[in-house]
Fold this protein.
Amino acid sequence: MSISKKIKLHLGKKNVKFDVVEHKKVFTAYDLAQTLGEKLENIAKTLLVEVELPELKKKGKDYFVVVVPASYRVELNNVKKALKASKISMAPEKVMAKLGIEPGALSPFGSLRGLGVVLDKTLLKTKQAIVGAESFTESLRMKVKDLVKAESPVVGSFGKRNDLKLQKKAKAAPGKKASKKKGRPAKKR
């Protein structure tokens, strides 16, 4: 599955430059970072959330694409507050299917499908990011400021750093406490 023509046209109309990054088939932002040898901070992870907004009570639910660095986990309460939503949850896969999106292949280009976009401000520190392109084998490398230009997202603090190194250490040595030694190492005589 390659990059959708809709995405290429959308970015072309907005004069956004990007590079297509081909890679082996991956399903998560973490796997993409590992495959490309990129830092997690340079990979944009996207999630679809279902939101009930007070002004939409009669119409029902609305959907937003949440974009955070792959090293972060989404804090739904922060998104809820920023959108002034009455309720928020992860969107079920059947909703993605109705929107024509394969689970795991969500791009940050929500405006293509009439979706709002929420972007974690930490991504703005990254000059270029690798973003999903509705493909499992191709992604896009683009300037984050161009993503903002193309999508006009709500920008704020929507994620929390997910320290994978600490999690791996904890799994590798269960029940063992790390020891801290102060001072200088002993000299060999």
In short: Residues 110 and 117 are 6 Å apart (CA to CA). Strands lie at 19-22, 44-52, 62-69, 72-74, 87-90, 116-120, 128-132, 138-143, 154-156, 159-161. The radius of gyration is 19 Å.
